[in-house]
Amino acid sequence: MRNVCVIGGSRYFGRHLVELLRVAGTHVTVVNRGSAPAPQGVHRLVADRGDERQLRAVLGSRTFDVVVDQVCYTPEQAAVARRVFAGRTGRYVMTSTVEVYDPATNPAPDGADCPLPVTEDVYDPVGRPAPGVPAGTDEATAYAEGKRQAESVLLTDPVFPAAVVRTAHVLGGGRADFTGRLAHYTDRISAGEPVLAHRRARPTTFIHHREIAEFLHWTAGASFTGPVNACAHGTLTVTELGDLVAERVGRPPHYIPVEDGATASPFSYDRAYPMDNGRATRLGFAFSRVTDWMPQAIDEALAARTTAVRDGGTR
Predict the structure, then answer these.
(1) 227 cis-preceded (ω within 30 degrees of 0)
(2) Burial 183-209, CB ≥16 within 10 A → b, else e
(3) pLDDT at residue 224 is higher than 90
(4) Of 12, 126, 243, 252, whose CB count within 10 A is highest?
(5) What domains can you pick out in the chain, each with its CATH number?
(6) From the centroid of its chain, how far is CA 65?
(7) How many Å apart are CA 49 and CA 261, to the nearest integer?
(8) Closest among 30, 5, 68, 96 to 218, alpha carbons compared
(9) For residue range 132-153, what is the model confidence (pLDDT) as tens digits?
(10) Can you tell me whether residue 245 is helix, strand or coil?
(11) Backbone φ, ψ for residue 98 (5° rounding)
(12) pLDDT in tens, 108-124
């Protein structure tokens, strides 16, 4: 694996992935819109990855051992990648999401609950239609369905060996975590403000931001294909996460229960789809336990909050 292209890779765990590749001696090319400078020693191509003509133009005659696609959200983007990189790469890795399993956006045809924890075969994208996500679709459904259809485009009659990494909820890194989901808890519990939690909250799975970068690096150098789940061992419910935050803050959390179907805090779920990481483990990757690193991730979020307050601003 001497020559790797990363599509995206300009923030959060994408930057860690690029650095891991660079330190390993890999020649790295990043393709993005140029919103952030490339790290030293990394070649950058500026293009809209959804614009086929533009992407072909900046790539020129370049070929790669592996392409890692960090920002493929729609079947249209996947179709462009499929056409442009056919014959250019020996392997394609797409970063997907745990949300492909969400029964709220992808209910089972017979209404039955899927077995837990969720294994990769619960959602098989091969041969599934990929007509695009209708305009006006709510954000959560559009994201999950876009990823499902993108997987289908890449894995049905593939033009290159392809793997899709279904990533758990990524946490850690303090201010680098642009999602603000963990900060929701550290901010509110620190301030004594209530947290909305489903009365019967279900567990979910997480992964550390550096661990998912390591997993993608490992996947890029592997040879397996198809979907693979990436998550730390163990699960947490919203109240278990809140209790961990409360331990670090030193004040009790205050939960306001809401019923199934109601809007609640991030990671509060009224349906369960925690992932099983058995396939990746059998293939040779050693995952951490979520409780090993979550306290540090919370401390980083608290430190980011303190810095923001000291600087007189907000997140």
Answers:
(1) no
(2) bbbbbbbbeeeebbbbeebbbbbbbbb
(3) yes
(4) 12
(5) 3-174+206-235+275-290 (3.40.50.720)
(6) 23
(7) 36
(8) 68
(9) 999 999 999 999 999 999 999 9
(10) helix
(11) -60, -25
(12) 665 566 778 999 999 99
List pLDDT tens digits, range 251-303: 999 999 999 999 999 999 999 999 999 999 999 999 999 999 999 999 999 99
pTM of the model: 0.94
20: closest CA among 174, 221, 183, 194? 221
C-alpha span between 190 and 82 (Å, rounded): 47
Give burial (CB, 10 Å; 0-12/13-18/19+) of 26: buried
- Nearby residues of 39 by Cβ (< 8 Å), 6 or more positions away: 15, 18, 19, 22
HSE-up (13 A, CA, CB side) for residue 15: 11
Buried b (16+ CB within 10 A) or exposed e, 294-303: beebbebbbe
Say if residues 125 and 101 touch (Cβ distance below 8 Å).
Answer: no
The token duo for 306 is 């303190």
Following DSSP, what letter does each residue of 109-171 receive, concatenated?
A: TT-PPPPSSBPGGGS--TT-----PPTT--HHHHHHHHHHHHHHHHHSS-SS-EEEEEE-EEE
Q: Tokens 């729609």 — which residue?
A: 74
